[in-house]
Amino acid sequence: MQNKNKHDRILDALQMLLRTRSLQTISVSEIAQAAEIGKGSIYYYFPSKDAIFEALIERSYEEPLKTAKELASQSSISPFTRMAMIFQACRNSSSEFLKSETNTAVDAPEKAFLHQRYVSHIVLELKPVLAEIIRQGIRQGEIHFDRPEALAEIVLIVLTVKLDNSIVETSREEVRDTIAGLISLLEKGTENPPGSLNFLMAI
């Protein structure tokens, strides 16, 4: 880790520790030791362990969020296609992060806590981006809906909770049924014909 800057070394250290430990059992001292820096250096960059974790989540979603912001400006692509592409990128990032950074020994409350942080980050960061895409769809006549922010939030919450499948575990069939229901509601709410948004099932 010596060749990296201290900020990234701290994040890498927590990332490594999360592979075998739960977040609650990891101390700032242990993060400093794993990063091979003094404990005092930690507080120069981060005020708390929670702040380190938040920065780690942010770094994990850096590329998907960059993709989302770039897609928001590409009005030549269907708004629903862009919504699907954005969430697919974030879903892949989230799945890899959860798979590699949380071990099987982590209990259900810890997994629920981690998942809540991921969902919160996705919704807060992507809601304005998706809302802008929806507004573009409204201007283009592809979407007929008068509350773009609400629609963006509903889609993000349903998809993140169901597709990450770590708060209440359900079968693939149940997940697909929920997504199919969401698609049906989207088609009706945005005045798109039945079946026109079925491609979203691929996410």
Automatic annotation (TrEMBL):
Residues 4-64 form the HTH tetR-type domain. Keywords: DNA-binding, Transcription, Transcription regulation. Pfam families: TetR_C_39 (PF21303), TetR_N (PF00440). InterPro entries: DNA-bd_HTH_TetR-type_CS (IPR023772), Homeodomain-like_sf (IPR009057), HTH-type_TetR-like_transc_reg (IPR050109), HTH_TetR (IPR001647), Tet_transcr_reg_TetR-rel_C_sf (IPR036271), TetR/AcrR_C (IPR049149). Residues 27-46 bind DNA. SUPFAM superfamilies: Homeodomain-like (SSF46689), Tetracyclin repressor-like, C-terminal domain (SSF48498). GO terms for molecular function: DNA-binding transcription factor activity; transcription cis-regulatory region binding. PROSITE patterns: HTH_TETR_1, HTH_TETR_2. It comes from the Bacteria. This is TetR/AcrR family transcriptional regulator. It comes from Candidatus Scatomonas pullistercoris. The lineage of its organism: Bacteria, Bacillati, Bacillota, Clostridia, Lachnospirales.
